[in-house]
Every structure is written in C-alpha cells, then in structure tokens.
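thought: fold this chain, then report.
action: predict
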Amino acid sequence: MMSEHTSLGFCSCPEKSCDLFLTQNFTTFSFYILAWDRTKTSVMMRPQAWRAICCLKFRVIYLLLTLNVVILLMYGDNYLRTRDVTKGKSTTRVAKTSCSFHSLSPKEAQVAHFLKHSIAWPETLSLPRHLFLNDTSDPAQSTFTILPHKRGSWFVGDQLEVLIKVSDFYGRPKTSGGDFLLARLHNPTLNAGVAGRVFDHRNGTYTAVFPLLWEGSAQVEVTLVHPSEGIAVLEKLTREQPDRIYFRSFFRLGSVYKTTTCNICLNSSRRLCNYTDPSTGEPWFCYKPKNLRCDARITHSKGGFRVYLRPMEEELFQSGVNLKVSIPASGPAHIQVLSQFDFFYRSGFNFPGDFPGVAKKTMQFTPSGYYYQGAWRPLDGTTVHQFHSITAISQCLKNKAVHLYGDSTIRQWFEYLNHSLPDLKEFDLRSSNQTGPFLALDYANNILLTFHSHGPPIRFRVVPVSHLHYIANDLDRVVGGTNTVVVIGIWSHFSTFPIEVYIRRLLNIRKAVMRLLSRSPDTLIIIRTANPKALTLYETLTNSDWFSLQRDKILRAIFKRMKVKLVDAWEMSVAHHLPHSLHPQPPIVENMIDVVLSYICPKTENL
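observation:
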C-alpha cells in the first residue's frame, strides 16, 4: 500500500515532487486540495485505473487552476465594486453595486450605536393600518397644571413643576408617551424667558420643569409640536424613504450636456459616478450621464422632494390642529415669584437652598441660560457683554481672522457682522448670495471674515462643484492660532437622512478640530447648535423640529468635553417670545453674536 501511495505523483512523479507541486499550486485554492484528498483515497482503492487516467485528470485540473488565475487577475474585487471609466489624470470612478445610507466604519458604527441609544425616543404603540385622527393626541383636549409648592410660595432659586396630561380628540387620556412637547416660562413685561425640560412618564402624562430665575410674574406655556403618532410617521419616513430629498448635477462637455440625479446613496442597476471624498470617506454618487464622462460635472443643486404618505398620515401634521399648537392650562397658567430676601427674612435667615424641610428634587434641570430685559444670560459662568456699538465690535475683532463654516444659519451671522461694520468691505468673489463663499476685510483693523458652506448634502439652488467643500478638509487648511476663530454650524440639511449620515459627518469634523487644536492649541472653536423653526406639512416632512432636536443632541454629545464653545441656539430660540424661524429673527441673532464676541473677548469692559 505504501508503494502505491508513493507513486501518486503526476503520472509516476517522485513523492517529493508531488508534495512540492501541491504546496506551490494548491495553497490558495483549498477547495481543490479537498478534491485532491478525496481523489487520493479513491485511487488507493483502484491503483490500476488511476495509473491509466492520472495524466489526463491532472492536466484538466491544471488547466482549471490556470483559468482561475487568469480570471482573478482580469476581474479582481475592484471589478465587482467599481470600475474606472475615464482615462488620463481623472480618478472618477463608476460604481457597480448598491450603497447604503447607514455605511460606517466599525469604529464609527460602535460610536453611532451608543449615540443612537442616547437619543432613543420613547416607543409608541404601533400605528394601526386604519388609523383615525380622533384616536391621536389632541392639544385642545390636553391640559397642563402647575403643581403647588410645599411651602405655599415660590422664590427665586426654586424649581417649578408642571403636570401635562395628553388626551385624544374624544377627550380620553392617552396611555402611552412619545409626544413631542416644548415648554417655556416667560414674563413679557420683563422681557424674560427660559426653556423648560419635559420628562416623559410614558403613560400619557409629562412633567415640565423650570428653574425660577427672576422675581415677579412667571407664565407657563406648553406646546404640542407633534403627537406621538406623528413621530412614528417621521421615524417610518426616515427608515423607508431616506432619499425623499434628491439632488441634481449638470454635466457638460462641448455641446453635449445632461442633468442627472445625485444623492448620498443611489441603489440602482444604472452606472454611477462615484464622488466619494478621498480624505473623509464622505460618499456622494450621481447617475452617470450618457455619452459624458464623470469629470464633466459642472454644478450641484437641490433636485426636489418626493414622499409617499397615506391620507390619514398627512392629517397628523395640520397647522392649527396638531402641529405646534398650545396646550391650555387647567387652572392658573402663571405664578408670582418672590425674591430670596423675602424668604430669608420669613424663614429665620435661611436661603431657599438651606431650608431643611425641602427634599431634593428627582427631576433636576439647569438650562444653558435665560433672557432678562431682552439680554441672554448664560448659567455656565460665562459673562456675556452687550456689543451694541460699531466701535465695540471692531475693537473685539481687531487683528482677528474669523472663519465661518456651515449652512445658511451660519451665513446669517456673516451677513449680520458684514452689515454691522461699515469698514468691513466684502470682496466680490462672483459667488451666489445663497451659497458663497464670501470674504470681507477691514484693512485698518486687520479683520478678516469668511464664510464657506458645507459640502453635500446641501439644499441650495445651484452650486459650482468647485465650491463644494467638506468642513473637515477646510479645517485642515486653517493655520490657526491666538487670533483665529473658527465657527461651525451644520444640521439643517441632514434632517431627512438616517442619523448615521450626520454622525459620520460630525465625527469627521471632530477629528479635524482635534488636529487643528493639536497644531494650534490657542485657536478658538465655536459650535452653533440647531434651533426650532416654523412648520408646515412640507417643512415637517423635510425639516421637522423633531429631526432637528435629534441632531442637536448628537452634536452636543460628539463635541462634549472638547475644547470648544457652544452657542445654544436651541434654548435661545425656545426661551424667546418671538416665533420660531429657521433663520432666527434679529433680536435673537444679536444675542447670539453677543455670545460669540464674548467668547472672543471675555475681558471686554465699558462697551
């Protein structure tokens, strides 16, 4: 048996030669090795037949191996994913497989999992197929009640609690949570206001909590932004129709021109131009135009909006019915707040916080700030100065380079500063007044002010592709230093996409900020948060306050504990008496700019 086994080479080849051939040729083809082992067993049982056909059999196997190697070299893995369709210097590629809105690296996916858990919305009852409006949350049938204080009176420094009960259109109490509510405490006479925090008890009741920060009247205001059933529809839209906002690109080469659809992801059998950013990995695709190369792309623009809703689902977003509608009070809607000195004298020289009979509240809330006499007062220890004169602003920005990056809410800050400083001269860069880029210079005071919009997805009219920049890449080109200020605001254009898209973008920006601070630690980085806005059906389906709130929470979490400053546009809008707007009204913007300038010039006096 041993002699037969030793003669199992390629037609009587020596045993060592057979082993050497197997080692060299079968290592990367394990399935052939298994087949060879089975064949050897069969041959050992029938040695005479094997010797007759071994040469022919192994020639066939060798030809199969050679054919596999040729196929591997010709078509490789890259062919299955992308294939270069241009020649010369162009590196644009045409994608051949489907993409994903949720694609993240393993490390990013781990971070995203934690972040998504931190913003998880209370689960609501699944929407029945035949949903009726009367079974959903009705702000007119719902009520809020100011809970009495144990001491009988409220003093500055106390916490006010308000119980909110949500009912349906029949007046029946809801038994589950998930409604989106906003709460505000204000005094119109004092031009004072503060945002409250709403706690969801997941049984149809909620508690709004407010710190009492001024003496005098304090009036409670509670608003139902969306019923829980509306939130379920918004979640379904993002899950099932993440591409409901789509984009266009114009291609031209000589007299040939085409316009095609673009997006973060295009799942189609059609050929795609892959414009994924090589530095950040941010994906972007367009359908390849017929008879044009991918590098013939000229412009980017918003293409349109398409959404599929059942008629009943549309009824969940009705202005004046269940879309940003106030909830009435059951009883008084205001309280009278006394000063701490009143309590001091009444209680035997104890301040409210020292009173032994008051148990610590389980629902604590400290807002980022509040308005008093129309001015924003932060509660994190920051002193905000009022920059009401041209001289004050110019002196603060003297010898400074201020770089603004983001969406139109950041462009609004550029416009405010540009209009406030007559010596700041804007250069005509032949750019759109919507998209930028913009550059303004005050030569005498050595002030440089710039604005760059963020890269796609961005819902502007028409943007030359040469103006499409990712913030992370722009930050890598900033020298930085003591006199450099970087302001970032990016949120609104990401609302219709799965949250992973926004997480990936912020993680890239975060890494770029870390690199900038590493090479220039004295650079000042300021982050603008999201803010609520006026809502219609269209605005709700594309840019709901609920979408903005989720992204606001993600932004705060990603930049937490970093050496950056926040401008809390969310609370500054909620706390103010003016109506919500995507682009906040001038008094709110003025307060935001005061916060920014106070970060730049913290020791300013006698403004």
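thought: worth noting. Confidence is low (pLDDT under 50) at residues 1-54, 69-91, 351-360.
final: tokens above.
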